[in-house]
Amino acid sequence: MSKAQTNENTGLAMDYLSQRNIPQLFEALMTGLIINRPEDHIAYLMKSLEQYKNKNNKQPLAWNAFVERENGLDNTSTSKTKRQLKPDSIPQSKREEKPKIQDRPRSSKSSEDIKNILQGKPIIFVGGGPGSGKRTQCEKMVAKYGFTHLSAGDLIREVTQDSSTEKGRYFNEAMSQGKLISTEDILGLLKDAIYKNANKASGFLINGFPRRVEQGKTTKTNKYLFFFFFLLIK
Question: What confidence tens digit (pLDDT) does each residue in 93-103 have?
């Protein structure tokens, strides 16, 4: 098979998965298993899939859709203690509701600042579906090349845990109101983390972002990034 045919088949496969929200489905199932830890995991998966099949499965699926509540799998009243702020966990109907631009905390570093300090240091975005081994591969590359590993999800969780800062209050408010975590917000966290570690890092590995095609296109506009994707499939 030629390289062109391989690329075409990969593109068709990615389109198939994306159009059917399969990565989100796998993520929701894995989250449900990890949090609920059902004794009969097969029965739990079958029940979850049956629930999803009976609903409108063309709509985006929340990451915690299969976290069990006392009254079954319906988690529409997810408690605040279990709610985690995750990129792309907001239903499509709410994704249009972006926070007011004047309320959004800005990254403390400009793109020009980061560009100057990152000369010759690659930034590699590691992509793949839930359970594909992204973190494991990042750990191996850190051990081999000495890169600094940044997880978008970890950065978001870290900032929400400190409500004494402007960013912490902003992200917590977004979480409580079910607002979208915008690409700009996530990029701001990544820029600050990159700048903080730039002097000692030989390069960066980033996982958990981008999660959608449009996020990748937005990130490409930042010309200082060396932009690579790894599709990891077990």
Answer: 444 344 443 44
pLDDT band at 173 (very low <50, low <70, confident <90, very high): confident
- 3.40.50.720, 2.40.50.140, 3.40.50.300, 1.10.10.10: which CATH number matches 109-220? 3.40.50.300
Mean pLDDT of the chain: 69
- The distance of Cα 41 from the centroid of its chain, to the nearest Å, equals 25
Give residue-wise pLDDT tens across range 4-19: 666 566 777 777 877 7
Contacts 24+ apart (CB under 8 A), 198-203: 198/114, 198/117, 198/118, 198/121, 199/117, 200/148, 201/121, 201/147, 201/148, 202/121, 202/145, 202/146, 202/147, 202/148, 203/121, 203/122, 203/123, 203/124, 203/145, 203/146, 203/147, 203/148
Q: C-alpha angle with apex 104: 103 to 108, nearest 5 degrees? A: 130
- Region of 179 please: left (phi>0), alpha (psi -120 to 50) or beta: beta
Instruction: Average the pLDDT over 122-146 and give the result.
Output: 77
Domain boundaries, the chain: 3-83, 109-220
Strand pairing class (204-207; 148-151): parallel
